[in-house]
Amino acid sequence: MITYKEFEVIRTLLKAKDIPDNIPSFVIENKHYYTFKSADEVAELLSSLEKKGYIKDGTVTNDAIEEIKPLKVENAVILAAGGSDISAKSVYSMPKGLFMKNGETLIERQIRQLREAGIEDITVVIAYKQEMYFFLQDKWNVNLEINPDLKKNNIYSLYVARRHLGSTYICNCDNYFEENPFSEYEYNAYHASVYKKNAHNELVLRKNSSGRILEVYSGAKSGECIYGHAYIDRELSRRLVKYMEEEMDDFRVSALFWEEFIGRHAEDLDMYVREYDADFLFEFDSIQEIQNIDGLFLGNVSGRINQKICDVLRCEEDEIRDIEILQKGLTNILFTFTVRGETYIFRYPGDSSQFFIYRKNECLAQKLAAKSHADDTYVYIDESGVKISKFRKNCHDLYGLYYKDVELMKAVARKIRAFHEEGYDLPDWEEYNYDPIWQCERLFREASKMKGDLFKIFEKEWAIMRKLQKYADMDGIQHTMCHNDINIDNILKTDTTLDIIDWEFAGYNDPAYDFGRVIAGLDYDVNEPKIMDILEAYFGRPATEKEHLHWMAYSAIHNWYYVGWALYKESINESSRDWMLFFFKQSKKLAAWCMPRYEAMYGEI
Q1: Is-contact 97 115, C-beta < 8 A?
Q2: DSSP code of 212?
Q3: Residue 33: which residues within 8 A CB-CB, separation 6 or more?
Q4: Which single residue of 48, 54, 72, 429 has CA 20 to 30 Å from 349?
């Protein structure tokens, strides 16, 4: 049997269209993964292969073809079922495999590359918006398999396709290869990898000196990451299917990536690593990574998104330039672009936001904010959540200033007051009514489906918050349109401008609710004189004792709502970072200050 390195020489020469002038150099230049130490090593291998009769005059012989025939790849499985990742939040509202570059979808590019390598038998496992993949059956004569459970990870997709596993390529629909990585023959089972300095969101592997995978894990700062396609041979497929059939009913298994399952059985599944150059192999698990593939983002926004920009800004499509996708916000996808030298920001809403955001409310609030000059970035918004704004350049970093800089907070308070003044006495206010306690109950109910009975866990706190709202509402403060989510991330300040942005949580509410993260900062004591300065800026006069109490009470309620928000985000597997504890502490501190004062004012209720 030939060695692995001899096989790699033969396979590389089989891909050559003509006999290379310098075979060692040709072999080295056409490898996108580490195999040979030098051209001299390749020359030695060529000499050995010539002696064995496998290469003659630079051509692979029939004897060599017969020798490698048992290594022929039988088929391929492409995993395209994903719906809990970028697909669910995509600006395209379509599966990732159907993203298009140069008139060709990513999945069709892979199918074409597989066919060019002689792989005719191809199975595609689909689920999310499965009907959009049906055309592949007629156009490419592929097999389609349905993953019936989107809540399970891609190990379940592989399990669904287990009858197709043999000498098989396993591919992901979101991969893009600069050149065709597939071959008619493979020597042994492997998984492609790419070294990454930032591997926080990747699966990282540990291997031995021979390149055999020993462990697959997550949470590393850097390392060799599981990336791209894989090949499994017949023996590994047999063992893998056996383990999947024995363990798939375990929910802890069905939640795994299939590579993690390989790592779980690494002692019995011989799989090796094939490390590729980072500029050869691409995949995108987040929308930011689309930019790594030149033209992919622009090629896919050229429809609905570009048309919206052209309609709003009255421009031509070729005037839209310098698109840059941003990592900002926990509910939205955002990107900046320029038209005629002006920079704008385009927002497309993420799916998870629809549960607690009312777009009709946001539209009204955004237009009132523009009218009151609380937000002068406004350009366009509609009730689907699509929004275009002016992009503020050279914004100040407010960390270390927000809460602490009283002049800044007073300026924010005056902006809030101007907006509130536009929102009083809405004739159809019932349509926009926003009860924060009721909204918080919704979030707790939804989060409880995954986290258990949260009302029981926080029974004491809920009793206090409901009672506090009843007391505060006895103050008789007139309601108005409110932002409901004013925080450091929603304040933009330049040398000449100050804007309150992101009106997604807006609703007709008690005006004091807008001060949850304006007068209730980490370093503020409830009786802090700075709070009185900020309230004075809002009212245009010193706040009364009753107003002070009322504003602090609704600040407590504001922070309690965001405990519910954080719990909900965690229940759908979206990180709320360390916000949950922050909101919990703030709501408890403020409520403890307010309750005895209300009891003294109104008596026990």
Answers
A1: no
A2: B
A3: 192, 274, 275, 276, 277
A4: 429
For 548-581, letters b (16+ CB in 10 Å) and e give bbbbbbbbbbbbbbbbbbbbbbebeeeebeebbe
Query: Is 125 in contact with 147 (CB distance < 8 Å)?
Result: yes
Q: Choose the weakest-confidence range: 36-50, 184-198, 326-340.
A: 326-340
169: β partners: 76, 231
81 and 125 Cβ atoms separated by less than 8 Å: yes
State how far the Cα of 282 lies from the Cα of 289, in Å rounded to an integer: 9
Cα–Cα nearest to 482, from 430, 411, 422, 523: 422
State the Cα–Cα distance between residues 140 and 145, nearest whole angstrom.
15
| Alpha helices (runs of H) in 200-257, residue ranges in sequence order | 234-247, 251-254
Kind plus residue range of the DSSP H or E element containing 258? helix 258-264
Encode pLDDT of 348-370 as tens digits. Answer: 775 545 555 789 999 999 999 99
**At 434, which amino acid appears?**
Y
Helices (runs of H) and strands (runs of E) counted in the chain: 21, 24
Q: How many residues does the chain have?
A: 605
CA distances from 440 to 253, 453, 510, 565 (A): 34, 14, 15, 7
DSSP 605: -
Within 13 Å and on the Cβ side, how many CA atoms surround 582?
14
Q: What is the mean pLDDT of residues 487-511?
A: 96
Contacts (Cβ under 8 Å, ≥6 apart) of 195: 222, 223, 224, 225, 275, 278
Amino acid making up residue 243: Y
CA distance 314 to 132: 32
Which of 10-24, 191-205, 358-372, 533-547 has the least mean pLDDT? 10-24
Residue 58: CB atoms within 10 Å: 15
Whether 411 contacts 534, CB under 8 Å? no
Alpha-carbon torsion 245, 249, 254, 259, what sign? negative
- Could you give the C-alpha distances from 234 to 175, 527, 548, in angstroms and in order? 24, 73, 74
CA angle 413, 416, 418 (to 5 degrees): 115
Bridge pairing between strands 121-126 and 213-218: unpaired
Question: Contact at 8 Å (CB) between 132 and 173?
Answer: no
**Which alpha helices (DSSP H) does 39-170 contain, by range?**
39-51, 62-68, 86-89, 106-116, 135-140, 154-160
Q: What is the DSSP letter of 488?
A: G
Rounded Cα distance between 420 and 171, Å, is 54
Classify the C-alpha dihedral 409-415-421-423 as positive or negative: negative
Output the six-digit token pair for 290.
């689309």
Mean pLDDT of 536-562: 97
